[in-house]
TrEMBL record:
Protein name: PQQ-dependent oxidoreductase, gdhB family
Residues forming coiled coils: none
Signal peptide boundaries: 1-27
Pfam families noted in UniProt: GSDH
Top-rank lineage group of the source organism: Bacteria
Length: 377
């Protein structure tokens, strides 16, 4: 049942938005403030649709409603009031742990072209990869689907794929790829893992990519030295590309992505190995970009939305919270946490065309939720 936002509910939710001191935001120690259950009961958050089997991605449609993708490889058209219809023609995916249908993206020219991109995993546990597929959505079916990019080389295991998509203003497609639990991959320009890629709409490497003419390098690489980027979005005003990624034990990062930059993994990191041993040489090194925000301990950020005011929104898997990051005027961010522990693992976060915030929960009976714009102002 839909809940309607009331002045009391707005007050309850706004009461949660107390920024952490700027000095503490980059290394938030200890638990964040919890959202009182009363805020949800009062209607500050609306459960719109579900349950879905591990919903992982949201993409808005220009005519209204959205697509919701699930890890096992199902795609749903969902109306703003929660009615849903399954989309046919979705490729078969390898699923398990972090593998599955990773992301879905609707292009800016969708009203004319009907173009949808899917990032998904194919193969078997000993040898698998991330595929970028392009199709047209006609009614409730994907047609003319084609695989336009395959990450190389094939790799084993079912973890750390990355797989987030973003579209540049010029129509280029950006794809994040994780390091597949092999740290050396991220610094190796001869493979795609541990990188953010920039592709032409047909999946080819643009001639002006930073490594397009470097012998032995993969021409699709835009930036490297990443661990597991689970958020990827363009700032709607500045046009800057931003990402966040998982650290090991601690050291989750927010980065402004620039062409050709090395983001450090595994040479530098604010985290440590899971057995407590150090990683790399420290937190900084010449020629490697410093993160603009760090979470220690880790929250495992997932999903990223940026609004026109410059506010960043991210979900958190381990942290089970909705994170708000506001520029602090000094190149960093002031952090606020909302709804901590209320909904479980938050897998994707998107800002809707009307300004409302939408998120999905990573659960075998996950749901799609809406936070009204009025509750965030």
């Amino acid at each position: 049942m839909a809940h309607f936002i009331t002045p009391a509910a707005i007050g309850l939710l706004l009461g949660l938005l107390v920024p952490l001191p700027a000095a503490d935001a980059a290394a938030a120690e200890g638990p964040a403030r919890e959202a009182p259950a009363a805020a949800i009961a009062a209607g500050a958050v609306e459960r719109v649709a579900g349950p879905f089997d591990f919903p992982w991605s949201i993409a808005f449609l220009p005519e209204g409603g959205m697509l919701v993708g699930t890890r096992p490889g199902r795609l749903w058209r969902v109306s703003a009031d929660g009615e849903r219809r399954e989309i046919a023609g979705v490729p078969e995916v390898l699923t398990g742990n972090h593998a599955g249908l990773l992301d879905v993206m609707v292009t800016r020219d969708f009203a004319r072209s009907g173009t949808v991109y899917l990032a998904h995993v194919r193969g078997e546990e000993p040898a698998n990869t991330v595929i970028l597929s392009r199709a047209r959505l006609q009614g409730d079916e994907l047609i003319d689907r084609e695989e336009i990019f395959v990450a190389e080389p094939m790799a084993d295991g079912l973890d750390e794929f990355g797989g987030r998509l973003a579209e540049g203003a010029d129509g280029h497609v950006f794809l994040s790829l994780g390091f597949k639990f092999d740290p050396e991959r991220s610094q190796d320009l001869g493979q795609h893992w541990g990188k953010i890629l920039r592709l032409d709409p047909d999946g080819e490497a643009p001639f002006d990519n930073p490594f397009a003419h470097v012998p032995g390098a993969r021409r699709e690489i835009w930036s490297f030295g990443h661990r597991n980027p689970q958020g990827l979005a363009f700032h709607p005003v500045t046009g800057e590309l931003w990402s966040h990624e998982h650290g090991p034990q601690g050291g989750d990062e927010v980065n402004r992505i620039e062409p050709g930059r090395n983001y450090g993994w595994p040479v530098v990191t604010h985290g440590i190995n899971y057995d407590g041993t150090p990683v790399g040489i420290g937190v900084q090194a010449p020629g490697m970009a410093d993160p603009l925000h760090v979470w220690t301990p880790s929250i495992a950020p997932s999903g990223l939305a940026i609004d026109a005011e410059g506010t960043f929104w991210a979900g958190a898997l381990a942290g089970m919270t909705l994170v708000r990051l506001e520029p602090d005027g000094e190149g960093g961010f002031a952090e606020t946490r909302m709804l901590e522990g209320e909904f479980g693992r938050i897998r994707d976060v998107r800002r809707g065309p009307d300004g409302d915030l939408w998120f999905v929960t990573d659960d075998p009976e996950g749901h799609l939720y809406r936070v009204p714009k009025a509750a965030m102002e």
